[in-house]
């Protein structure tokens, strides 16, 4: 674990067509960051499959105070789902994560250093 004091939220949107194994891998990759997340916001964009709900439930139970799960009654699309998620993030720094992507363990550490070195920027895309 790195000693950098960085508070940030991970933001992810999930919808029913996602593969549960990809979602699991994606969440796990963010939990293995050298700078551990302060919050993990998952927006359920409409009703999900039992398998997807099971993955989310597993992590919510294991990390009870970390996950904030927001459920949208119907699928509104990625843009609106993320907008809802941003409003519910506690921290100014938000690590946007797709539910079918994987991040290397140093992703947040590397991005945070870029923010520190360039205080005028508001977005890092690597």
Structure description:
The chain has helices at 20-31, 50-62, 78-88, 107-117, and strands spanning 8-14, 39-45, 67-72, 93-96. It has a four-stranded parallel sheet, sandwiched between helices. By secondary structure, it is an alpha/beta fold. Helix 1 packs parallel to helix 2 (50-62). It has one domain (8-117): Spore Coat Polysaccharide Biosynthesis Protein SpsA, Chain A, CATH 3.90.550. Helix content is 37%, strand content 19%. Helix 1 links the parallel strand 1 and strand 2 (39-45).
Molecular shape: globular
User: What is the CATH domain class?
Assistant: Alpha Beta
Fraction of residues in β-strands: 15-25%
Into which percent range does the helicity of residues fall?
25-40%
- Class by SSE composition: alpha/beta
Mean pLDDT: 94
Q: Mind telling me the CATH superfamily name?
A: Spore Coat Polysaccharide Biosynthesis Protein SpsA, Chain A
């Amino acid at each position: 674990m790195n000693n950098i004091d960085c508070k940030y939220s991970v933001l992810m949107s999930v919808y029913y067509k996602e593969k549960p194994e990809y979602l699991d891998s994606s969440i796990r990759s963010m939990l293995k960051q050298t700078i551990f997340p302060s919050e993990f916001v998952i927006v359920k964009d409409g009703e999900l499959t039992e398998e997807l709900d099971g993955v989310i439930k597993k992590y919510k139970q294991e990390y009870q105070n970390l996950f904030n799960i927001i459920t949208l009654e119907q699928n509104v699309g990625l843009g609106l789902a993320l907008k809802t998620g941003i409003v519910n993030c506690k921290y100014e720094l938000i690590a946007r994560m797709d539910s079918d992507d994987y991040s290397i363990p140093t992703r947040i550490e590397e991005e945070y250093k870029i923010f520190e070195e360039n205080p005028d920027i508001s977005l890092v895309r690597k």
